[in-house]
Amino acid sequence: MKENRILSILLMFPLMLAIGVTWARSAQGRMTERILVSAAMSLKTPLEKIGREFSRDYPGFEVDFNFGSSGSLRMQIEGGAPVDVFASASVRHMNILEKRKLIHGKSRTDFAGNEITLIVPENASNTVTLFSDLELPGITRIAIGNPATSPAGRYAEETLRSLGLWEQLGEKLVLCEHVRQILDYVARGEVDAGILYATDAVLRKEKIRIAAWAPPETHGPIIYPAAVLSKSAESKASQVFVKYLGSETARGILRKHGFVLTESGL
Amino acid sequence: MTPESFHSILLSFKVAAVATLFVVPLGMSLAYLLSRRRFRGRTVLDVILTLPLVLPPTVTGYYLVVLLGRNGLIGRTIYEWTGWSVMFTAAAAVLAAAVVSLPLMIKAGRAAIESVDEELVAASFTLGRSEFETALRVIMPLAGRGILAGAVLAFARALGEFGATLMLAGNIPGRTATAPIAIFTAAAGGDWHTAHFMVAVFSLISAACLFIVNRQMRSRENES
To answer: What DSSP assignment string belongs to B18-38?
Structure first.
């Protein structure tokens, strides 16, 4: 009896393995060129839509996505991950890869941009409508990204500095490690205001209100570059996909999700 | 539920099951070595094997990429010989889960082996059993419950693995994204509906698994 039970548990493992293998096999298509795009997490929703449109417009090309923070995506690429295209939320990581000749420089293109916004809880009693209102005594806590570790935090600091508010607000600032954290604190009313990307702000429209947009000249440009990796330079689908990011279809989708489009005209 | 959510939950359980399948025999062998043998470098081996328990999983994952990526120390050789790389495959998810859950299996296994009555072991040797036979037929059965507990711990840890998996296996929806990663991704993208639903389904199945294992363990206890 006891042996039976152990045996049946042992038998279950190979069975599950077999199911897994069959599953993986059946999911593979063979007639198409399939590429893998490593993309910043913040691009997930629009890029998946663009990917579907892309396969519709170019039958025979298929796109899979690998989402993560731009920094860890870069480390994966340096480690030799089988990636064809990199779509980054930061110019810095793309520059590092370009310096190491890991991306095909000619294919590099800036396909989207973002803005910095000031958000407040939807039911907030405060009447914040300007960045300078953050100095009001009624505002005691402001969530921003940690400037040391997150790009969003760096942009927030730049904005507050160029508006001459950074020194005064020092004690009110709550540093967050993830943009999601800022959004949650504001939505729950744990803080009086937060500073983050416009594209993240629109994710919780029902719980938060966008009080102000930072003027573009108050912070460095927020740009999303994409490029084909050097080892995939010959891949037709990869080249076409990076170009497709500048197509009317792709631009329309990006715009709808709050991304601003760069002036380079693509 | 979208096919991708379904896939990620199924993948998580497959990955955790296969990882546990490797971790139990390997972990018990190492636990045996560490608790019953004295050899050079034992402490070093112990520390290295415990490291994934202490390191942030993302760091463990980074080390795995450095070792096993196509440009990695070991990965390069494998790639040159076979043209295959483990990165961004389901096998990578298994490997990451196994590395992170192995220390738990070893700790539980050592405690179980060390609790076995030394006189019974001595008796087995006196009766002419070899060390291998003694280990397999005296020590392991007596440590059975501890082994099972270790296996449950390792399985649970593998099921929830996030950081190392994200680095080595990537986050490819429908291919390598396990449930914890898919849930994180959904939440990060503001897709609360999917995130909540997946958390509910995943928690429910996990709780059911642990409940069944606990009951099995108790009934074993009653039998013996």
So the answer is: HHHHHHHHHHHHHHHHHHH--
Please tell me the distance in Å from A164's CA to the nearest CA on chain B: 32
Whether A13 contacts chain B with CB within 8 A: yes
Give pLDDT tens digits along chain B (224 positions).
788 899 999 999 999 999 999 999 999 999 999 999 888 999 999 999 999 999 999 899 999 999 999 888 899 998 889 888 899 999 999 999 999 999 999 999 999 999 999 999 999 999 999 999 999 999 999 999 899 999 999 999 999 999 999 999 999 998 999 999 999 988 887 788 899 999 999 999 888 888 888 887 787 777 66
Structure tokens at B195: 């995130």
From CA B143, how far away is CA B121, in angstroms rounded? 12
- Report the number of secondary-structure helices (H) and strands (E) in chain B: 12, 0
CA distance B164 to B71: 18
Q: Which residue of A has its CA nearest to B79?
A: A80
Question: Are β-strands A173-176 and A142-145 bridged in parallel, bridged antiparallel, or unpaired?
Answer: parallel
* Lookup result for tokens 């507990």: B149
What is the maximum alpha-carbon separation in chain A?
77
Q: Which two tokens stand for residue A28?
A: 């593979």
Instruction: Specify the residue for token string 């990882």.
Output: B19
3-class secondary structure, A121: strand
Mark yes or no for CB contact B65/A67 under 8 Å.
no
Reading phi first (left if > 0) and then psi (alpha if -120 to 50, else beta), residue A164 is in: left
- B70–A180: do the CB atoms touch at under 8 Å? no
Q: Are A150 and A69 in contact (CB under 8 A)?
A: no
Say if residue B97 is exposed, middle or buried (CB neighbours under 10 Å; 0-12, 13-18, 19+).
Answer: buried
Edge-to-edge order in the sheet of strand A142-145: A173-176, A142-145, A193-197, A116-121, A208-213
Give the strand pairing for A223-228 and A109-113: antiparallel
Quote the pTM value: 0.80
Could you give the CA distance from residue A71 to residue A94 in angstroms, rounded to a whole number? 10
ipTM of the assembly? 0.81
Distance CA B200, CA A153 (A): 33
